[in-house]
Design a protein that fits this description.
The protein has about 260 residues and is an alpha/beta fold. Helix content is about 45%, strand content about 15%. The protein has a six-stranded mixed β-sheet, with helices on both faces. A four-stranded mixed β-sheet has the order 4-6-8-9. Strand 1 and strand 2 form a beta hairpin. The two termini are about 30 Å apart.
Length: about 260
C-alpha cells in the first residue's frame, strides 16, 4: 500500500501508521484524512492485523492540528461538511474499530491531533508531549469530536476550561486528568506501546472487540447493562470461550483463534 502522507508497517500483527508531514508538524489536511481512512480500513479488514498504533514522524509532533491554510475558503456549509467527513472517514472509524488502535503521542497533539488521540482506544505519550484544543484562538471550536470525547475523560468543568482557554498541558497533566494512560521517555514510546499490545494479543480477539463495543456504548442505565449482558452471551457462541475455559481448567495458556 502506497501513501503520500503516511508511512505504514506490519510487525508481529501490529500495524504501525505514522503520519509523515514533519515539515508541517504532521498537520491534518485532506490527503492525510483520506489516507488515514484507507489505513484504518486496512486495520479492520486485514486478518493479519491484530491491532494498530498511530503516531507522528519526527520528535516534535504527533499531529499539531489541522492545516489552517485550508480554512480560508470555507463557509458555514462547507465547514460543517469538512467536520462531518473527517468524523465519518477517520475519527468515528477509529473509535469503532473492532481491533485496538492506540495513539503513541510523540510531541504536540493539538486541535485535530488531540482529537485523533481521543478517538483512539487509549493513549501512551512521550514525556515531551503536549496536548491542547486551541481552536478558540481561531474563532472556532473543536470539530472532530473534541467536546464529546474529552468530557467523559476529564469531566465537564475541566473540559470547559481546557477548550475555552485553548491552553496547552503537559503529558504528565494529561495523564493525571485521564487523557493519557502512561507517560514514557520518547525513545521508549513505540516499544512500550507494542509491549501493551502484545499482552492484548494473547487475549481472545472477539472478546476484545466486544469490550470495545460495550465501552463505546457506555450508558449507566439499564440499557447499558442490557447491552453488556447481550455481548457477554454472544461470547459463549465462540470457540475462544471453550478454549479459554478449557485452558484454565487444564492450567495451560490458551491459544485463541478469533472464532
Amino acid at each position: 500500500m502506497s501513501h503520500q502522507t503516511l508511512l505504514t508497517s506490519l510487525e508481529n500483527n501490529i500495524f504501525i501508521i505514522t503520519i509523515n508531514r514533519p515539515e508541517k508538524l504532521n498537520a491534518l489536511n485532506k490527503s492525510v484524512i483520506e489516507e488515514l481512512s484507507t489505513a484504518v480500513d486496512e486495520v479492520c479488514n486485514n486478518t493479519n492485523i491484530r491491532s494498530a498504533i498511530i503516531t507522528g514522524s519526527g520528535e516534535k509532533a504527533f499531529v499539531a492540528g489541522a492545516d489552517i491554510s485550508e480554512f480560508l475558503q470555507l463557509d458555514k456549509s462547507s465547514g460543517e461538511a469538512l467536520a462531518r467527513k473527517g468524523q465519518q472517514m477517520v475519527f468515528d472509524k477509529i473509535e469503532n474499530s473492532p481491533k485496538p488502535i492506540i495513539a503513541a503521542v510523540n510531541g504536540f497533539a493539538l486541535g485535530g491531533g488531540c482529537e485523533l488521540a481521543l478517538a483512539c482506544h487509549f493513549t501512551i505519550a512521550s514525556d515531551n508531549a503536549k496536548f491542547g484544543q486551541p481552536e478558540v484562538n481561531l474563532g472556532l471550536i473543536p470539530g472532530y469530536g473534541g467536546t464529546q470525547r474529552l468530557t467523559p475523560l476529564v469531566g465537564r468543568s475541566r473540559a470547559m476550561q481546557f477548550i475555552m482557554t485553548g491552553e496547552m498541558i503537559s503529558a504528565k497533566d494529561a495523564e493525571q486528568y485521564g487523557m493519557v494512560n502512561k507517560v514514557v521517555a520518547q525513545k521508549e514510546l513505540i516499544d512500550e506501546t507494542k509491549k501493551i499490545l502484545s499482552v492484548i494479543h494473547t487475549k481472545a480477539p472477539i472478546a476484545i472487540s466486544n469490550v470495545i463495543e460495550c465501552i463505546n456504548n457506555f450508558d449507566h442505565t439499564q440499557q447499558g447493562y442490557d447491552f453488556e449482558i447481550k455481548k457477554f452471551g454472544e461470547c459463549f457462541a465462540t470457540e475462544d470461550v471453550k478454549e479459554g475455559v478449557t485452558a484454565f481448567l487444564e492450567k495451560r495458556k490458551p491459544v485463541f483463534k478469533g472464532k
